[in-house]
Amino acid sequence: MEIDLNKVPAHIGIIMDGNGRWAKNKNKIRSFGHKEGAERVIDIVEESYRLGVKYLTLYAFSTENWKRPADEVGYLMTLLNSFIDKKLKRLHENGVKINVLGDIDRLDDGTFKSVKKAIETTKDNKKMVLNIALSYGGRAEIVRASKLIARDYKDGKLNLPDITEDSFNDFLYTKDIPPVDLLIRPGGEKRISNFLLYQLAYAEFIFVDTLWPDFREENLREAILEYQNRNRRYGGL
Question: At what angle do helices 30-51 and 217-228 cross, to 10 degrees?
């Protein structure tokens, strides 16, 4: 069966999992897996906008990942800087707007500047939005939103009746971005790992055994095809 391009999910989220296990399977160090995993990003981004996906959110680095050894964290940040340096021009020319979701104040100066450059360079692009969840945690995002609402209420900018499910979204990192339609998790694990907790309320979940460094365009198409064959009822009949 072919993908119906008129029914492609508007917003896809991907938990990029399995880099370390992929490297271990090849008797390599973990950084080798992270490097190969980074190579998959541009392939999946380009296939997504070819198919007409409007929003793609990639889980790159969680709040919990800060607990990893300092050398591994440093290498991951180096990879991110390298990705921006090498791929930013290509993404920009293809009309991709880059957003970063998360507490980027925790980033080192170099990574912070790279991220800001990517956001500023692509801010007016319209073809697709690429959200990079970086130093991100779903619970932390909801707590942050709650504090912002409490602040506005205290300052008289917000009344209790104004606080609704829709207005709550305005205080999330994903303001003005629709909820996730399809969540894909490569790597064989079947959990969401604190990713987009609010935005995933009615998403379709697809878990695949393929480790992220082996995840290719055909895997993305297979997931979208499965999504199109599901009946999304949103709690109805």
Answer: 50
